[in-house]
Design a protein that fits this description.
Elements: E1 9-16, H1 22-29, E2 34-41, H2 48-62, E3 73-76, H3 80-101, E4 105-107, H4 108-119, E5 123-128, H5 132-144, E6 148-154, H6 170-178, E7 187-190, H7 198-204, E8 212-214, H8 215-228, H9 234-241, H10 246-252
Parallel strand pairs: 1-2, 1-3, 3-4, 5-6, 5-7, 7-8
Length: 255
């Protein structure tokens, strides 16, 4: 089936209930002809950690939000839940969700893992937007996938009346990223799907440092690879990390 606004593919995107970054960054990142439609992950739990686990516990029941829309893949725009459920359960859940949805399901955590693997990265620096406990869980998750944790630069807004992650600005992410430039890392990953990351990445393209990735960039890249039925490759990832196409779309937004 060919859709007017998605002739090259339709991605069903899940985003945490109060996240204000997943949708605009996905729209900027995706090439023309591939379109996202979104559904919300919701939870009444009172803490960030409990909500994240609840998102994964209830996600299978949330898949019918897409009804019979002809989606080609499902992208889970939430990284923190992967840290808390761990590598083995995440793999089990992805298999179950894919069977239920009838299309491949991509988690943000595994998209980053795929990206780091095609880069051949082992020692990785991270920009973390999380509180300390979630940063610790994040480190354990990346180590379980065989990566060495390098330096971690924090960017966390404890004073926000809205949300300590979703209230961050691109300037906050840029300040944290600057602390890692010039350090010995095979790659740098800007964590979380709620912290704006595209302008900080665009600003360092071509500066000669290690490649800078973000969770949203990796999720968009991996979802498009699924639609095209392509094996992840360093050539395609380098095009994305160098801003091919999306830097112009970002500039057009005047952000």
């Amino acid at each position: 089936m060919t859709l007017q606004y998605a002739p090259r593919g339709l991605i069903g995107v899940f985003t945490p209930q109060a996240n204000t970054t997943v949708e605009p960054e996905m729209q900027i990142l995706l090439p023309q002809g591939i379109t996202p439609i979104t559904a919300r992950l919701t939870s009444p739990k009172s803490t960030i950690e409990d909500r994240l686990i609840d998102y994964y516990d209830t996600l299978e029941g949330a898949l019918p939000q897409f009804a019979n829309a002809p989606i080609n893949t499902v992208a889970i725009g939430c990284t923190g839940a992967s840290y808390l459920v761990g590598r083995d359960r995440e793999a089990e859940l992805v298999g179950r969700w894919s069977n239920c949805a009838g299309v491949p399901v991509v988690t943000t955590g595994l998209a980053v893992v795929d990206a780091l693997n095609v880069l051949g990265a082992r020692r990785v620096g991270f920009v973390s937007c999380y509180p300390p406990a979630l940063t610790k869980a994040s480190n354990a998750y990346w180590e379980s996938h065989g990566f060495e944790i390098g330096q971690v630069a924090g960017s966390f807004n404890e004073d926000s009346n809205f949300h300590p992650i979703y209230s961050l600005l691109a300037s906050n992410a840029s300040e944290a990223l600057a602390k890692l430039r010039g350090t010995e890392h095979d790659a740098i990953v800007m964590l979380g799907t709620g912290m704006p990351t595209l302008k900080p990445i665009a600003d360092v393209v071509g500066d000669g440092g290690p490649p800078v990735l973000s969770c949203m960039l990796c999720l968009a890249w991996r979802s498009v690879q699924q639609i095209k039925r392509q094996t992840p490759s360093i050539e395609t990832l380098r095009a994305w990390s160098s801003g091919d196409g999306w830097v112009e779309r970002l500039a057009a937004q005047s952000i």
